[in-house]
Specification:
The chain has 319 residues and is mainly β. It is 10% helix and 22% strand. The chain contains two helices and 13 strands. It has helices spanning 90-101, 104-122, and strands spanning 163-169, 176-182, 197-201, 210-212, 218-224, 227-235, 240-244, 253-254, 265-270, 278-283, 287-292, 301-305, 315-317. The strands form three sheets. Strands 9-10-11-12-13 form a five-stranded antiparallel sheet, with no helix packed on it. The chain has a four-stranded antiparallel sheet with strand order 1-2-3-4, with no helix packed on it. It has a four-stranded antiparallel sheet with strand order 5-6-7-8, with no helix packed on it. β3 and β4 form a beta hairpin. It is flat and about 125 Å long.
């Protein structure tokens, strides 16, 4: 068992640091010329002198006193119990521990020893900033860059090509996808433009698997995650339509105009609930609505964003 103790030295014990500043030149010694001393010397010509550009260095070796160390282990067995306490009896030891832990002297001793123990433990939390964690990982230089390729292209079968404004994947096996087609530019829809949207089979891109016929072009569409036969779609006129693919292409329910959005319904989602029929819609008219499919003529809740300049908008619920 190796025991290590790290000695530290505070910065204040190194001494005061040197602060250098710029100042003007100052004459320290001024010795006048004495011409009489010139007669005591002769001029040496030529003059040779050896110089060394490298700095001079000295080397010293010191042998310090040898410090011998050895590791020892201690086998600690349970002890320190009073004579009337049998360590083998669990109930006696538990009663004695509870009695000692309630003593104020014991609490103070634990608090004092805790700070000392914490200081000693933290000395082992040294981090090697030069440690390499992934030396054993060999980089594979042959890895191909990520890429994607087109498998199928699903084209709008109508004469006037429209924007695919939203898609929703079939929740079970992703073999189908519902696509909402619309022209989002205001009053830019050509005359005679189709309002149909489609459900496509991934393996059959030439012909749609099913046609959805809303009363207004679909801006968004969403599958019910708990019932793959049910879909909801947000229409350009602000109404919400509900489809059951087992009952045909026509919507089985459409929200009332008075309870719908005044702008295009840009997003609709199914909420996580036990029934799986609760839906939430929002639009650029500043309103959001929530309700249950089958009851969209009277939504459960319709709220307005009444303050757009405040950090926390106020909500007003209308009946």
């Amino acid at each position: 068992m190796e025991i290590v103790y790290v000695y530290t030295k505070k910065r204040e014990e190194f001494g005061r640091q040197c602060n250098f500043t710029d100042r003007t030149a100052e004459s320290l010694v001024d010795i006048p010329v004495d011409d009489s001393l010139k007669e005591s010397f002769i001029e040496r010509n030529p003059c040779e002198s050896a110089i060394q550009c490298a700095p001079e260095m000295s080397e010293h070796e010191v042998n310090t006193e040898r410090f011998e160390t050895q590791s020892r282990g201690i086998n600690h067995v349970e002890g320190g119990w009073p004579k009337d306490i049998n360590p083998a009896e669990v109930e006696q030891t538990m009663r004695f521990r509870k009695k000692v832990e309630k003593d104020e002297v014991y609490i103070q001793a634990i608090q004092q020893l805790g700070s000392v123990m914490e200081h000693t433990i933290k000395q082992n939390n040294a981090v090697d900033i030069y440690e390499e964690y992934f030396d054993d990982i060999v980089e594979d230089g042959c890895a191909e860059p990520p890429s994607a390729k087109t498998i199928n292209v699903f084209r709008d079968p109508n004469e006037h090509k429209r924007t695919a404004s939203n898609i929703s994947w079939y929740p079970d096996n992703a073999q189908k996808l519902a696509v909402a087609y619309s022209v989002l530019e205001f009053q830019r829809s050509p005359p005679g433009m189709s309002m149909d949207s489609y459900i496509w089979d991934v393996e059959s891109p030439n012909k749609p698997d099913m046609t959805l016929k809303p009363i207004s072009p679909l801006v968004c569409i969403e599958y019910n995650p708990k019932d793959p036969h049910c879909l909801v779609g947000g229409q350009y006129n602000g109404q919400l339509a509900f489809w059951d693919t087992r009952k045909g292409s026509q919507p089985i329910e459409v929200s009332a105009i008075s309870n719908s959005h005044s702008d295009p319904l840009y997003k609709c989602i199914f909420l996580t609930s036990k029934t799986g029929t609760e839906c939430f819609t929002t639009s650029t008219d500043g309103r959001y609505s929530g309700g249950t499919s089958g009851k969209w003529r009277n939504p459960r809740r319709r709220s307005f964003w009444t303050s757009l300049r405040r950090a926390n908008p106020l909500l007003e619920e209308s009946p």
